[in-house]
Amino acid sequence: MPIRQDDNRPTRRFGLVNILLIGFGVLLLFSNFLPNPAMQVPRVPYSLFIDQVNDGNVKRAYITQDQIRYELTKPPEEGAPTVLSTTPIFDMDLPQRLEQHGVEFAAAPPKRPSFITTALSWVVPPLIFILVLQFFARRSMGGAQGALSFTKSKAKVYVPDEESRVTFADVAGVDEAKAELTEIVDFLKTPQRYMDIGARIPKGVLLVGPPGTGKTLLSKAVAGEAGVPFFIISGSEFVELFVGAGAARVRDLFEEAKKKAPCIIFIDELDAIGKSRSGSMGVVGGNDEREQTLNQLLTEMDGFTAQDKPVIVLAATNQPETLDAALLRPGRFDRQVLVDRPDLSGRKKILDIYAKKVKLAEGVDMDRIAQATSGFAGADLANLVNEAALLAARSYRTAVEQGDLNEAIERVVAGLEKKSRVLQPDEKKVVAYHEVGHAIVGHLMPGGSKVAKISIVPRGMAALGYTLQLPTEERFLNSKEDLEGQIATLLGGRSAEEVVFGEITTGAANDLQRATDIAEQMIGTYGMSETLGPLAYDKQGGSRFLGGPANPRRAVSDSTALEIDREVRALVDRAHERALAILRHNRDLLESISQKILEKEVIEGEELKQLLASSTLPEAAVLERVAA
Ligand code: ADP
Ligand code: MG
Ligand code: ZN
Q1: 316 lines ligand 1 (CB under 6 A)
Q2: Is the CB of 216 under 6 A from ligand 1?
Q3: Is the peptide bond before 125 cis (omega within 30 degrees of 0)?
Q4: Which of 127, 377, 432, 501 is the most exposed place for a label (fewest CB within 10 A)?
């Protein structure tokens, strides 16, 4: 995306001072190798010098620490040099000997380094050091990641310009999220309107959803729609080896952002810094760095109050359940926007966006493609269209044909299947009956919630489909009957598989886990068993550190333990029988809703309400018989 990178720090030129300093350094290095005039004098062995002294042939000598230079009275032969030099050896008798033979001699004063040399040796090394530092500092300022940029935030600033800016029109299939974010755009554009009425502008919005569903794209679109600068940084970029660096970066980021307000800070992969602090306690030493970074982020978010120049922090994560509760408090990321995988009509819209960017052959049916790509996220669909275009180009065709798209689906699916997100048709059928089973039982069970949505669009790694139950009233207490209803609802999925296919799959593992948990709590925590009485058999507040169960059992006799197990088992069995009875009784409805959802993938709202309204409980006698 051709977005202008806005760097307000000018790069400094290589100054004159620097050049001079380098010159000095070079001179100093080479001064040792410069030819020394003293070296021209022929050098002779020390023994020869002593011989010549003894012969009385030496007129005068000049003695320094590393050289004796002397002049002969007469050269040994015609034309030979009269000035010679030798290397002194440690000889205490030398002065006496010279005196005896009448040699005129003098010694050089102890060698003292010249002023220049001294000055240079003090000044140059630190200067070289400074130069090196500057070099790295300059590199890090240029936006590249320099070695000394620990405390600078690595956030990139995008100032959306006209032709490259992303808008809501570029994002499709996530209508609820778009609706929520439209409000944010409004805050950014006209903060005054909200201030006048005394409303507090939200500071943080958390986008939650699986990878590739367009979270980053959406936040760019918010910036594009509002026409404000957009800082983007990934949570993992805050976390460094050095404790405190992350916190300093957060500070720096907010400082920069405040200068550019109104603007948006987008923190991608928030879970990298926002992991629940209590969750890491079991780990030896915890994670100081991450905690400090998180604390700094919280402080900064609490800190900025300038309402007329809002800085809104958008963040994205695909693991909202791991986030620290402190992040989700009011005044921080108190708004959460679900960015889910698109349903059939959403996929169609996304495909339309990307189909416009390639040349399509006549009569390509995008609806069929949308139908065949259940579970694909926006990024997968974009990838799919591109793969198809590549295939067409490879075989020298000028437009993308249906066959290319079909082949591309297979390619993308092959990549996705590893991540177990795409369902085979027969699996999809099982999931459909399973979810409708939950919905019908859930609808008929007492308790303050209603079934709001059934979906067979796979979500995340575990859930292949889901049935959403929303509470119709706020509830703080659950009766025994409510809880039994919840267990039956959870078992409704598996029961539907039994009723329809006569066999069961692994898809119900999570349901069974939760059902068993509820049953255990009913007996062990809430004292809801008639035979066991109002005793709490579970101890509250188990140890987290050892990774044991949250509520270990109190010390009980073997026979009581056996009784508890029996009661839990009986509760679950009863609920299972109940679910089976309900589904057998509503067999036709189970069939018709399942067919409908196989077609549409998602049923919700009024339509769902009407469908479920025709479900009926079996006669009381049947349920009684089951319960007995
Ligand atoms: P996320 O941040 O949720 O992991 P991205 O926003 O980075 O996903 O999406 C990656 C790319 O996939 C986007 O740049 C865009 O091309 C495409 N994409 C994803 N979701 C959508 C969508 N809902 N509508 C249009 N394009 C999408
Ligand atoms: Mg992203
Ligand atoms: Zn289920």
Answers
A1: yes
A2: yes
A3: no
A4: 501
296 Cα–ligand 2 center, Å: 23
Q: Does ligand 1 have an atom closer than 6 angstroms to the CB of 353?
A: yes
Tell me, using a 6 A CB cutoff, whether residue 379 lines ligand 1. yes
Atom of ligand 1 at shortest range from CA of 268 = 2
> What are the tokens at 118?
């001294």
Query: Average model confidence (pLDDT) for the chain?
Result: 79
CATH architecture of 344-414: Orthogonal Bundle (1.10)
Distance CA 48, CA 50 (A): 5
Instruction: Give the C-alpha separation, 625 to 628, whole Å.
Output: 5
Q: Which residues surround ligand 3, an ion (CB under 5 A)?
A: 493, 511
Above 70 in pLDDT, residue 136? Answer: yes
Contact assessment for residue 421 and residue 458, using Cβ atoms and an 8 Å cutoff = yes
> Counting atoms of ligand 1 from 1, which one is nearest the CA of 346?
23
- Which of 217, 220, 352 most suits a substitution to test ligand 1, by most atoms within 8 Å of the C-beta? 217
Q: Which residue has the tokens 């309400």?
A: 609
Dihedral class, residue 407 (left if φ above 0, else alpha if ψ from -120 to 50, else beta): alpha
Class level of CATH domain 37-107: alpha beta
Top-confidence residue, 548 or 73? 73
Please report which ligand is nearest the Cα atom of 467. 3
pLDDT tens, position by position, 424-436: 788 889 999 999 9
Q: Say if CB 244 and CB 292 are below 8 A apart.
A: yes
What pLDDT score does 31 carry? 56
Pick the CATH number of 156-338 from 3.40.50.300, 2.60.40.10, 3.40.800.20, 3.30.70.100: 3.40.50.300
User: What pTM value is reported for the model?
Assistant: 0.55
> Is the distance from the beta carbon of residue 383 to the nearest atom of ligand 1 less than 6 Å?
no
Categorize the per-residue pLDDT at 461 as very low, low, confident or very high, splitting at 50, 70 and 90.
very low
> How far is it, in rounded angstroms, from Cα 161 to Cα 250?
26
Cβ–ligand 1 distance for 211 under 6 Å, the answer yes
**Domain range summary for the chain, segments of one domain joined by +:** 9-33+114-140, 37-107, 156-338, 344-414, 425-627
State how far the Cα of 270 lies from the Cα of 318, in Å rounded to an integer: 9
Better-scored residue on pLDDT, 529 or 552: 529
Task: Point out the catalytic residue in the list 237, 269, 435, 520.
Answer: 435
Level-2 CATH architecture, domain 425-627: Up-down Bundle (1.20)
Nearest CA-CA partner of 625 in 579, 581, 571: 581
Show Cβ contacts of residue 274 under 8 Å, excluding neighbours closer than 6 positions: 235, 294, 297, 315, 317, 322, 323, 324, 327
Closest Cα to atom 14, ligand 1: which residue? Answer: 217
Nearest ligand, CA of residue 382? 1
- The rounded distance, in Å, linking the Cα atoms of 374 and 598 is 11
Is residue 498 part of the annotated active site? The answer reads no
Instruction: Assign 283 a pLDDT band (cuts: 50, 70, 90).
Output: very low
- What is the predicted pLDDT for the residue at 153? 59
pLDDT of residue 475: 59
Q: How confident is the model at residue 352 (pLDDT cuts 50, 70, 90)?
A: very high
Give 268 Cα–ligand 2 centroid separation in angstroms.
Answer: 6
Q: How many CB atoms lie within 10 A of CB 550?
A: 12
